[in-house]
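Here is one record:
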Amino acid sequence: MAFQPHSVINIPDEERFTALVRKVFSSGRLTNNGAAVRELESRLAEYLRVDYLLLTSSGTLALQIAYRALELTGEIITTPFSWVTTVSSLRWVGLQARFVDIEPRSYNIDPTRIAAAVTPSSSAILAVHTFGNPADVDAIEAVARQHQLRTIYDAAHAFGTTYQDRSVLSYGDASVLSLHATKLFHTIEGGAVILKERDAYERAKCAINNGLGSNGEVQALGINGRLSELHAAMGLALLDDIDGVLRSRRQSAEYLRSFLRAHSSAQLQQLNPSGETNHGYLPVVFPDGQIRDRAISALTRAGFVPRTYFDAPLNRLPFIAAGAPMPITESLTERILCLPLRIGISIAELDVMGKIIGTLCPVMSPLIRTYGA
């Protein structure tokens, strides 16, 4: 049974979006912190239970604004297993990445390795909630306090994720969201920075508006990081339905994870028991790259669009100085694949994906002894 390739992008009700666009047009204001942006910021802060949230034109820009708002310098301790912008955003503003390898099952930065990476030049820890799976926040914060470091969480994947019954975005000195169209909640292009301290929030607010203060005069070095009214309209159109989106993803992911545990030896991400992920991604790890490639071919023939994450460890990027090997990350990038989920995906489709993986990685495979699934 073959399915037609489908998009995993969350599309809002067309009439609702059109009505919001008409409202923007009638206001005569398309950007510069208009009514739609202000409404979306307010509603998101309430929904996510955070105090200081600012929308930006991208998640990458949100990271850079967070670094400036926290006045970081020198080295930032971070993970080699993430999307390129986690580290390119550091280099872009003159900060140096110092890598710490990840935990082999959660795919998040390993807190037990962070202290050994601290140097006199370290100013912050930049952790990632990988695939929306909360990092070990308590352990990371403990190391940060011990060494007087700031904490930033790249929460690009983590909209709606909780940790200890709080929004995961409420932890650390700053958290950053991507609101790119590939995310469960999005503004087509966009991002958000969430800050703990009022002073840092005010610095960020000034920075994304070309350094202009509330009096309209330049007060500091800034950049144009504003989100437009039309992008905010997309977010407003999607926000009312986000609880249903998260519920649907959870149901689909839990079904497929259960199927794979019963019928396959492929490794699944170990989810943080103190949190609740948004199930925006469903990563599967194969014994080796060849089996992963066979899975990609088989899933594609069946009409699915799987994605590899992440194609290269960040410590191997050409603009990063060579450092210590990151064996867990380097192995994982060659074997991991994210299965495509979408709103309303059928049980039949989930079964087909599960059976494809199960065929390639059967439960009784002898590889299980060396693979550690």
